[in-house]
């Protein structure tokens, strides 16, 4: 660009910094969108580009699963302004300590234009091994737990005390979730929430899920699809490779930004921090992101299926 404008690169850099407060940022990385999925994304945009909040987007219940890693989030890069080559840089070196906790916590949640949906932890990791034999006490209510969340935790504790657990064929491995697990433990909560919204607003709501195999969106005759049909749930098909067309992805970004630089000692402490940040998310923040959907649909058509980016997400 500097060559096109006929100025030195440094001159252009200084002016952009001074006039627009432009800075150097790391480029985000992501898997390239396939040509097939670009076509599907464009078709989705064409179908929904003219729909408004009032007539359409306020009636969509957006869902997603997310994975929070404590070690990744504990790292927060700090920047300073100094003259290159000065010895001062060694005096202000950013010391990095090993993260005391390295676990991944899994969450499923939903949002809609007028209300938050469910927020559930699932398949919690074990606490880091301690010396000696440790038998956890019966869970007590924490300051961030609702009665329903406490009941769920206590039920899991009682199962563990009896030496029980999930059926072997529905256990979760790593970040993947089986369709049986989703259909038995998570989908019913989304369905319950959808039914409550429909009863409250006397209007059909549409469930949006991504293309994860556990959701059963890739075929007609599977456990998850059957459960949704049996419940009479209306579905909004979601194009593959399209986190930029699901507003709840923007909420995950916001929560992770707020968690960066944290220092957690236990799984429960980490979960408590995540839950607090979820509760700090306002309905207006959710509405602002859902309100972009009409523009995003127009933009994805204009960009022929390529990624969309705004100041919000």
UniProtKB/TrEMBL annotation:
Protein name per the record: Tc1-like transposase DDE domain-containing protein
Domain Tc1-like transposase DDE, chain residue ranges per copy: 178-270
InterPro entries noted in UniProt: RNaseH_sf, Tc1-like_DDE_dom
Gene3D superfamilies for the chain: Ribonuclease H-like superfamily/Ribonuclease H (3.30.420.10)
Pfam families, A to Z: DDE_3 (PF13358)
Native source species: Eremomyces bilateralis CBS 781.70
GO molecular function, one term: nucleic acid binding
């Amino acid at each position: 660009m500097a060559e096109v404008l006929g100025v030195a690169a440094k001159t252009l850099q200084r002016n952009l910094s001074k006039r627009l407060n432009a800075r150097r940022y790391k480029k985000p990385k992501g898997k390239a969108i396939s040509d097939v999925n670009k076509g599907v994304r464009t078709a989705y945009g064409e179908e929904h580009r003219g729909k408004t909040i009032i007539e359409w987007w306020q009636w969509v219940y957006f869902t997603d699963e997310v994975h929070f890693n404590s070690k990744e989030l504990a790292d927060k890069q700090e920047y300073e302004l100094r003259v290159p080559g000065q010895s001062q840089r060694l005096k202000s070196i950013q010391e990095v300590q090993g993260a005391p906790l390295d676990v991944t916590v899994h969450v499923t949640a939903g949002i809609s234009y007028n209300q938050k949906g469910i927020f559930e932890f699932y398949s919690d990791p074990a606490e880091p091994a301690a010396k000696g034999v440790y038998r956890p006490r019966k869970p007590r209510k924490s300051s961030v737990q609702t009665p329903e969340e406490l009941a769920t935790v206590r039920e899991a504790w009682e199962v563990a005390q009896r030496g029980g657990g999930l059926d072997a064929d529905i256990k979760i491995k790593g970040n993947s979730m089986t369709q049986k697990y989703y259909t038995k433990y998570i989908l019913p909560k989304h369905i319950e929430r959808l039914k409550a919204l429909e009863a409250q607003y006397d209007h059909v709501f549409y469930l949006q899920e991504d293309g994860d195999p556990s959701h059963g969106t890739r075929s007609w005759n599977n456990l998850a699809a059957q459960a949704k049909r049996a419940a009479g749930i209306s579905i909004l098909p979601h194009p593959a490779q399209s986190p930029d067309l699901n507003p709840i992805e923007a909420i995950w970004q916001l929560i992770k930004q707020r968690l960066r630089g944290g220092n957690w000692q236990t799984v429960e402490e980490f979960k408590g921090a995540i839950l607090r940040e979820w509760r700090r998310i306002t309905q207006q923040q959710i509405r602002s992101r859902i309100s972009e959907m009409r523009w995003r649909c127009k933009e994805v058509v204009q960009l022929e299926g390529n990624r969309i980016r705004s100041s919000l997400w």
